[in-house]
Structure prediction request, 68 residues.
Amino acid sequence: MKNNRNKDKQNNFWNSSNGQWFLLIVIFIIFGSLGELSGGWSWIGTFIISFIIWRILMILTKEDKENY
Prediction:
């Protein structure tokens, strides 16, 4: 595990929990503003959608790291 982390120094922000939370917040804000513009979206639905997309992104990046 430690050797893999040393290899991924350039991706360290996105591998860290801070980077993952930042990404979740960005997705949430984007979908939230889209929901506000369309007028029919609730914030709870926005959070569920953004959380699902965030989980998919985390799974995809984990697979990329394993294949690296």
